[in-house]
Amino acid sequence: MSRNPNSRRWRFTPLDAAILAALAGGFAYVIFKAATGLNYHWNWEVIPQFLMRYDETSGSWKPGLLTLGLLTTVRLSLWSGLLAMILGVFIGLFRVSPILFKRQIGGVYVGLIRNTPPLVLIFVFYFFIGDQIMTLLGVEEAVYGLSEGARHVLGWFFGPMNRFPRFLSALITLALFEAAYIAEIVRAGIRSVEEGQWEAAASTGMTRGQTLRNVILPQALQRMLPALAGQFISIVKDSAIVSVISIEELTFQAQQLMTTTYRSFEIWTLVLVMYFLLTFLCSLIVRKLELTLNR
What we know:
By secondary structure, the chain is an all-alpha fold.
């Protein structure tokens, strides 16, 4: 009887202990040399105020600049990931369409995004969307026309509403960029389903749309899920690039603090840890989801 590979229990072997000890020793050596060998005066005492600070005016604790930046990064990643997923699925379906015109639209979009430097795309998309589309749609006027209660509720989802037009521009920019990669994941997932599945569905009288919805996509989704989850983690990391267009996410806040405090090593070390914890948490959730689907 064959055993399910997912049922194997992980064992901590002496080799694992040796590798772990070597890594810990190497890390400790780097920390020791950084603390004693560099011509730099470390000062970690100034760092906690960037995470949480006591506001004497209100008499309560408030999130610091890095915490606010982290929250903006999370909001930006979630919303742009959701929008990129919707757009990427449509483009991915275009890529496998039997209609030549749709395949060409999908191919041009993916080719344009994947063969252009992301920083250039960010500037082009942001200034076009921010300066032209947002003005045309009257987003800023609409935000200022909201009631105080509506602005407070929307602020939980999108951050401070006085910065909403810029946040929305960055969100759309990031989503347009990431959708090209999600489209390729969707295309590969659909292509991975055996041709016999299409033929069997067609023999029962299903149309192409019914076959996609009821037969192909449910199977393809399970195969795409690890790659899609990995792409979402990439969105979290790629969100740092919008710091160049002054979106106040984690990297931008770190740059501002570094300019005013000159605590470069402490700030960037903390930002590194914050990004790692955020993406590592996403990885654990993805792993849990994969195990659940494989049962």
